Each structure stands twice: as C-alpha cells, then as structure tokens.
Amino acid sequence: MKVLDPPDSDTSSWDAVPADAKRARNLTRVTLETVPSPWASVRSPWASEEFVRRAMRLVPAATPRSPVADASPAAQLFKELADTWGRETRMESFVHRIAMHPAYQRIIGLGAPAVGLILERLREGPGHWFWALHAITGEDPAAGLSNLSEARAAWLQWGVEHGYLPPLDP
Amino acid sequence: LIPDPPLDTAAEQAELLEYLPRLSDAVYGVDYTIESISTTEYNCLAWAMSDCSRFWSGSPMGGYFWPDDLPIGVPVIGVIVEMFRRAGYAECGDSTHVVGAEKVAIYADSYREVLHVARQVPNGRWASKMGALADIEHATVELIECNWIGQVAVILCRPLNVPEPAVRLILPW
C-alpha cells in the first residue's frame, strides 16, 4: 500500500499553521492511502485532481466536533453533497436507489474524513446514512436490527465509542 | 421520545406537488387527502403491508427489514409479487373497488423495477406513502403515476378476512 503525500500547495498550507494552533484548533492532517483499483481505467469525476486536492486539505480531527469543522473545505463539500442528495431522493422508496445517488456515492468516496460529518448529520435527525457508514468503515453496529430508529441509535453509540461524537445525553 | 411535529397540510401539499404533477391536474380529478407528516421511518412497501414501524428494503447492512430468503438487489416485480403472495394476495384484473376484498397496486418502470406500492383501503380509495414525504389517500391509482413512481404494473387482491401479517402496527400520528 502506497501513501501519497499531499501536493505542494497543500503541504505549504499545513506547514503554515503553527503547531500550537493545530493543537488548539484540534486539527489533524489527512493523507490518502491508495490501493490498486479495478476501476483505474474508468474516468471518474470524483477521482479528479480537484477532488483529491479538496479531500487533502486540512480537516479537523473527528473528536470532538467544533465550529472549525463546519468551516473546513471537507465539511463544506460534505454539506453540499448531503443537501443535494437529500433533496433529490425525497421521492425514492427503496434504499438501493437512495444510496446509488451520485452525491451519496461521492460522500462515500470522501472516505474516513466523512465519518464524523455523517454521524453528526445522523445525530441531528434520521436519514439513510447506514449504507455510507458501513461502506467507509466496514462496521455494522446495526447488524440484525430491522428498525431505522434502533439502527440510528446503534450507529450514534458506535460514534461515541469511537470518538467521533461527544457522549450522548443521559 | 421527541413528539412528532403537528401536521402542516399546506407544507406537505406544496412538497408533494413538486413531484406529483397529476395531483394538481383537473384531468385526473385532484382528489386526494394528506394523512400524515413526512417521515423516513417506513416506506411505501411497509405501508402497503400495514407496518409503519419498519422500512422494507433489501440492504446489505442492518436497519432495514427484508425477508431472509428473497434477493436484496433491485426489487423487480417478481420479488414484490412473491412478498404479497405470501401475505395471501393473488393477481387480479383491475383496481376497481370490490366489497370484501383488499387490493394492492404495484408501480414499476419500463424495466420492471418496482418504484412504489399502494394499498386500497376499505372505502375504495388508495393509501400511499410517498417516498420520504407524507402518506396520502388518493381516489385512483393513476393519480400518482409519474417518473418517480412509475406506472401501475400489477394489481393484487385478497379477501378482507385474511389476517394481517405478523407485524407491529404503530400509527405515526
């Protein structure tokens, strides 16, 4: 497995932030790991240079969530995609159609940096986020559950246990 | 539990009209009522099965309900018909109201992928859960046909005395 370094422009933006500020603002650096893809020959809009640049920018650490997270490029991109997805799947009745929406697939493509953002969105209200969470993390804390409310609670608890969310209210 | 917000009929109607052009087309009668708030807790298939506590959809991960022995891929007409056959339904001719019988209408696209299911209620009208939007009752099966819903592909019916499937019935309002 090869670890890619961010492009020079992004490296300089990371280096420009003083170490104290990084700690104070709970920032962490994101690098992308790549594996040989069976789709390497397929032209994909979310594999574009622009997408990789955006995904590689500084994003706050997933825990705890802070106002910085809302302003990060990754958070803004996520919000755009999630809003589009929610708006354009309002009339869909089956989860495979909901999850196959291009914006939802792009959210999955954001990978690990999106997990905290998805869980935060899920904490704000119900939604069909389990497919994306499962696809990104490989986990399924809702396995065996057949009720969306119970599955949502299981994923939120998972988010707390893995440091993506602050402890839930008692 | 956080209580559901009160039903805002005007807001629900405005959103439905964005997707369902026939609801405002006099040619189709404009005869429907809004019966619930918008929710994602259950879907049209669950509603047709009288279950509003679960979301019936094939899925590779937890949170959804689907019979174990049916394929979880694209719900083609054959799969959905089999589901209703197990609940006592059989294919019948049309959507007219027959006293002593209850019917379901399966909507699909031209590739036979099921996009929606509606259930006839005892007064002869049709009950539909519209995606993540509200439940509505509509006078005819044709009233909601559109690109999102598809067109009626199959009508099934069963005698009214067939017991409901063993699922919890929790009304959302």
Write a structural description:
The complex is a heterodimer of chains A (170) and B (173). Helix content of chain A is 52%, strand content 6%. With 170 residues, chain A is mainly alpha-helical. A two-stranded antiparallel sheet of chain A has the order 1-3. In chain A, strands 2-4 form a two-stranded antiparallel ribbon. In chain A, helix 5 packs antiparallel against helix 7 and helix 7 runs parallel beside helix 9. The longest helix of chain A has 16 residues. By secondary structure, chain B is an alpha+beta fold. In chain B, 15% of the residues lie in helices and 21% in strands. In chain B, strands 1-6-5-4-3-7-2 form a 7-stranded antiparallel β-sheet, sandwiched between helices. The longest helix of chain B is centred in the N-terminal third of the chain and has 11 residues. The mean pLDDT of chain B is 88. Classes of the chains: A mainly alpha (170), B alpha+beta (173). At the A-B interface, helix 9 and helix 10 of A face strand 4 of B.
Largest sheet of chain B, in brief, is: 7 strands, antiparallel
Radius of gyration of chain A (Å): 17 Å
Strand content of chain B: 15-25%
Mean pLDDT of chain A: 74
Strand order of the largest sheet of chain A: 1-3
Q: What class would the helix/strand composition of chain B place it in? A: alpha+beta
Q: What is the element string of chain B, with H for helices and E for strands?
A: HEHHEEEEEE
**Mean pLDDT score of chain B:** 88
User: Regarding quaternary structure, how should these chains be classified?
Assistant: heterodimer
Largest interface: A-B, 28 and 33 residues
Detail the poorly predicted runs of chain A.
1-13, 30-68
Binned strand content of chain A: 5-15%
Uncertain residue ranges of chain B:
none
Structure classification of chain A: mainly alpha
Q: In angstroms, what separates the terminal alpha carbons of chain B?
A: 14 Å
Q: Alpha-carbon distance between the termini of chain A? A: 42 Å
Number of strands of chain A: 4
